[in-house]
Amino acid sequence: MKWISFIKVTIIAFSFFSCKETLDVYLGVPLQPDITENNYEPGLNIIGILRPDFTDTINRSFVHAQEVAPAINNYPEFTPDSMIIKTADIAISNTSGNVYEFEYTQYDNLFDEFQYRPTSDFRPHAGESYFISCSYSDLPVLTSSTIIPNEPKVIEGSIFLENDKIRLELEADTSIFLFEIYSFAQDKNTGFTRVVSNRFTATPLEIIISEPQPDRIVIYGYDYNLTSYVLNSNTSLNFNKYRQPFGNVENGYGVFGSLNYILYSLE
User: Fold this and answer.
1) 235 within domain boundaries
2) Which residue in 176, 133, 135, 149 sits closest to 51, CA to CA?
3) H helix and E strand count, the chain
4) Are residues 116 and 206 in the same domain?
5) Do the beta carbons of residue 184 and residue 170 sit within 8 Å?
6) Helices (H), 33-138
7) What CATH number is associated with residue 140?
8) Is the pLDDT assigned to residue 176 strictly greater than 80?
């Protein structure tokens, strides 16, 4: 009877509304918003991630910046290359008054890859607040902020390595909103899982692993901004791809967040 009632209501809905409007109601999200030229708001689109680790050659904190292009009509001035911005003024500052300039840098010679990286010794620490300012040409100045999360900590004695899985518990931590865990055997990735942090209580998790048996795990802890971005970014589902873009920046598009991590040996 419930299914008969549902079908009757659906038929009535289609009688009064368009197909799109009816499906909007049942799905709870707009299938496809009205796209007009007037919806286009010029601005910068970034992904910026601060992290405390670095190597002998590069700092792993980075910002990737592009210019947003209109989705409709023909704009020959916008090309894939022109939308990549190489001369933006990007500055990261903290509450202590320190300012770090990020410049467009070739950070990977092998693959000829470029990003904005710090030009000076930049070592953010857990608990510190950082602010970003991005400006380019006559586009609005993009701003945002993040708080560096703590290192994830494994509860002592909680790791159990079985034939095809690793079980462990992570300490409660209110600065971490999402965990990502990778297992490795030498240089081979043998497992991965993603778990939302319980924050106020311990977070148990399980990783399904493949051969060979891993010798270490790497645990990443995401701040609120990166967590929101990962959990809300659009998927390939057809009805989902028209959602409004997610972002946590002002006067622009994209995300600015931070992470921390720990490498834990299983040997």
Assistant:
1) no
2) 149
3) 4, 14
4) no
5) no
6) 80-83
7) 2.60.40
8) yes
Q: Decide if 69 is inside a domain.
A: yes
Q: Which whole number is the average pLDDT over 159-163?
A: 87
pLDDT per position as a tens digit, 19-60? 444 444 444 455 555 555 556 788 999 999 999 987 666 778
Which run of H or of E encompasses 4?
helix 2-16
Q: Do 208 and 117 fall within a single domain? A: no
* 104 and 167 together in one domain: no
**pLDDT tens for each residue of 218-239:** 999 999 999 998 888 655 555 4
Residue 10: both structure tokens together: 């659906």
Contact between 237 and 23 (Cβ < 8 Å): no
Residue 81 lies in a domain: yes
CA distance linking residue 86 with residue 207, whole number of Å: 40
Measured in residues, the chain has a length of: 267
DSSP 50-82: E-S-B-SS-BS-EEEEEE---SSS--TT--HHH
**How many domains, the chain?**
3
Could you read off the pLDDT of 65-104 as tens digits, one per residue? 988 876 666 655 666 666 788 999 999 999 999 999 999 9
pTM above 0.90, yes or no: no
Q: By residue range, what is the domain housing residue 201? A: 160-222
Paired sense of beta strands 253-265 and 216-222, if any: antiparallel
